[in-house]
Structures are given as C-alpha cells and as structure tokens.
Amino acid sequence: MKNIVVLVSGGGTNLQALIDSEARGEIKNGKITCVISSNPEAYALERASKAGINTVVIPRKEYKDSVAYSKAILEELDNQKADLIVLAGFMTILDRCVTEKYPYRIINVHPALIPSFCGEGFYGLKVHEKALEYGVKVSGATIHFVNEEADAGAIILQGTVNIENDDTPEVLQKRIMENVEWKLLPKAVSLFCEDRISIRNGKAYVD
Ligand code: GAR
After folding, report:
1. 162-200, pLDDT tens digit by residue?
2. What is the distance in A from the centroid of ligand 1 to the CA of 14?
3. For residue 111, is the peptide bond before it cis, meaning its omega torsion is within 30 degrees of 0?
4. 2-206 sits in which CATH class?
5. Cα of 162 to ligand 1 centre, how many Å?
6. Residue ranges of domains in the chain
7. Cross-sheet strand order for the sheet of 138-145
8. How many whole angstroms separate alpha carbon 124 and alpha carbon 36?
9. How many angstroms is it from 89 CA to the middle of ligand 1?
10. pTM of the complete model beyond 0.85
11. Which of 27, 60, 73, 74 is disulfide-compatible with 38, CB 3.0–4.6 A?
12. Closest by CA position to 138, among listed 122, 114, 160, 156
C-alpha cells in the first residue's frame, strides 16, 4: 500500500475528490495518510480532519523564501515516509531540493491544458482569466509530474471542456473542476499507486 501525502493551500475540493475516491475503493493500493497545508486557514484542513486524516500546517508566511520553505516541507515529507506527494491546489512552487529528492513521485493538478496558461504566476482563477482573455475555445486541466521547472514535468492525463461565449473565470473554473480535475486527479493517483505509469524518454505513459 502506497503512502500518499497531499499538499494544499485553499478550499481543498481536489483533496475532497481524492478522499471520496478512496472511500469508494477507487484508489487502488494507496492511502492518504497526511495533509500538509501552507495556509493555517485553509478549508482543506477541515475536510481532512472530517475524514480522520492527520494534518500538518507549515505556514508559507513564516519562511523568508521558497528555499527555506521547501526545506521545511522536505523534512516533513521524509518524516511522513511519503511514497507519493500530491499537490492539490498547493500555491507555492517547490524548490529543487524537494523535486530532486522525489523524482516522478510528485503529482500536480493544473487548471489548463499545459503548455498553455501555465508557469509562474498562473494559478487558481488567474489561469481562467487568461484563457478567457485570449479567447481560446477549449480549456481543461492537466495532471503531471512535478520537476524543477514550474508546470513543465511529464504529462500523465489531460481532459478538456468547451468554453462558452458568456463564461466568467468562476464559471469556467467550476466546469473544469467538475468535469476534469475531480475525475482525473484521483484516476492518476490510482494509476501511480498501481505502478501503471512508466517513464520513457522523459514522457509519461499509462500502461
Ligand atoms: C484548482 O483549480 C487547481 O487546479 C488550482 O487551484 C484550484 C484549487 O482548488 N491549482 C493551481 O492553480 C496550481 N497551479 P481546490 O483547493 O478546491 O482543490
């Protein structure tokens, strides 16, 4: 059974999707054992407690920079003996001290079709604002491995939604979450735990 540690910063609807999937027996060979939050006020912490999952708060504000923060996160990940780390709405870019220690063992959900609308500064609602501003006709979400470059690791799964003429960033965000993120993130986590993702030439394949 693989030990899953989930990192969060906010509302935690993706964490909830993982908790619900696990309860339905859809995360094969994996168990969420700890939720780490960068934000003491994150509603995600309540979701974890309600599900009986151990929580740890490591407030981003208490660290001078990303390197110092990442070192604290790394220490906790090691302490938790994480097999898989899931960034579920985690709003801090992790320094290479973490990504190098856990290659192909950190999964992120990004609310756009990478390589569009991604990288530094593209997070949360901002991503959907930019997609609408550009006028793209489809958007979606990407589940990918995390490496030392923001949103640039191997893509595991992607799914799309259509954009409607009267969409607002909030409406588009909700459509992408409901139709793509909440389905594909648990699916990718289960695939990882079942050892069904392989890496060839830096690309991820589901076997
Ligand atoms: C989700 O849409 C997630 O894809 C996005 O933030 C939202 C968090 O919602 N993540 C990023 O933008 C990371 N770059 P949640 O806290 O309800 O899961």
Report:
1. 999 999 999 999 999 999 999 999 999 999 999 999 999
2. 7
3. no
4. alpha beta
5. 19
6. 2-206
7. 54-57, 30-37, 2-8, 84-87, 106-110, 138-145, 155-162
8. 19
9. 4
10. yes
11. 60
12. 160
Q: Are strands 2-8 and 84-87 parallel, antiparallel or unpaired?
A: parallel
Q: What is the DSSP letter of 150?
A: T
User: In 10 A of CB 164, how many CB atoms?
Assistant: 10
CB of 109 within 6 A of ligand 1: the answer is: yes
Mutating to test ligand 1, I would choose from 38, 107, 127 the residue with most ligand atoms within 8 A of its C-beta, which is: 127
Task: Work out which ligand 1 atom sits closest to the CA atom of 87.
Answer: 13
50-105, pLDDT tens digit by residue?
A: 999 999 999 999 999 999 999 999 999 999 999 999 999 999 999 999 999 999 99
**What whole-number distance in Å separates Cα of residue 190 and Cα of residue 136?**
31
Q: Is 144 a catalytic residue?
A: no
